[in-house]
Amino acid sequence: MRNSSLHRIAPALITLLALSPALQADDLSQLHDQIRALEQKLLVLERKQEIKDEAAVAAAPTTPKLTLNDKGFTLASADGANSIKLRGLVQLDSRLFFNDGGITNNSFVLRRARIISEGTFAKNYSFQIVPEFGGGTVAIVDANIGVTINKTLQFKLGRFKTPVGLELLQSDSWTFFNERSIVTNLVPNRDLGIQASGDLFDGKLSYAAGLFGGVADAASTTNSDFDNDKDAVGRVIASPFKNEAGSLLQGLSFGISGSLGRAKTAAGRTAGYKTDGQQTFFSYLATTVADGQNWRVSPQFDFRKGSFGLLGEYVLSTVNVRPSSTGKITELKNKAWQISSGYVLTGEDSSFNGVVPKTNFDFANGTWGAFEVVARYSNLKIDDAAFPVYASRTTNADEATAYGVGLNWYLSKAVAFKLDFYQTKFGFAPGSPLVSTTPNLRQDEKSFITRFQLSF
Question: What structural domains does the chain harbor?
């Protein structure tokens, strides 16, 4: 825009000079001419700048940017403010069970098959839609809207993972093992709600807090609510050494999460807890209903140092239940914990967001990608007060202790092949029969799960 300051100052300056007795008429005329000449030069300079600005705008790219790589397909506006991305996830599993007398079928499983749509509009508004084609039915896994105010405050609304379980919050493609640990049985999965989150103190502290419809342990919302009560959920994670390059603890993050709400009806308590091999080892009687307050608390940590990674979490989950719609209310406290670790043999960094190989597998060129060995130990204990009023002693285990070892081969950032062996030992409540009526619980579960994964 043109500068009008000289236009405003010039008359006042001329008047001031005219009042000065020391100036002659010729001097005043010369000054006036000089001021007008300067004004003209300023106008010429301003116009030249306007021409440059107009040329820069005209030369700015307007063609949308199209990108296709191992991160997906992205179509973005020239300024990057608007974009749409398509990604995908396909996981094909093979499950083998040993020493079970043929009770459980060895099988191939299409564990996940997803087309992921994500987008950003005007930089600060985003969306995510994730349908699931794996399994027997098509379902919506995630569907949410994001609003970014700044780094310290973002909002998410819709269906997404509740911020309680540490391992649950990892991407389905980047966990140490093919299946998450039995600890994940005690945390809510995906729910409908609204959440605020952000990073504080230069990323050394992150938080998430939200209000959700409320779901039982290991459950996801069915897009309907079973009562009028809602769950408050929160998580705080500290990374105090994040910006201290060279510190042994630079990759350490730790914190706590939890939820508080009320639940009613049979939908308010878990449908069942599963082993690493995805077999149910505990479920309530069909007549048991939730009725009252439920709450969870979970201290957790994640540590990464070069090729080494270590993850741990503990979960205490409580639920108030009745044996029927009119029976006595009892508070049950179920507990679980796990410790998992991984080491990248080929030297790449271990990360909460997965391993990126330095070179892709290429047999002709003699490159093999990245290899990672992993190990895990976990335990889940059911409250003894659940038996025999709320759950059957004869058909359930009241404890599962599991360990696993595995090898992950990352052929590229997008392609992985994983081999896991799990063994689960079961414990039983006092008064249980010597032999369970559930065939799967008569011996340790020993399973070998392999996975071929494409994730982009």
Answer: 5-59 (no CATH), 92-109+171-455 (2.40.160.10)
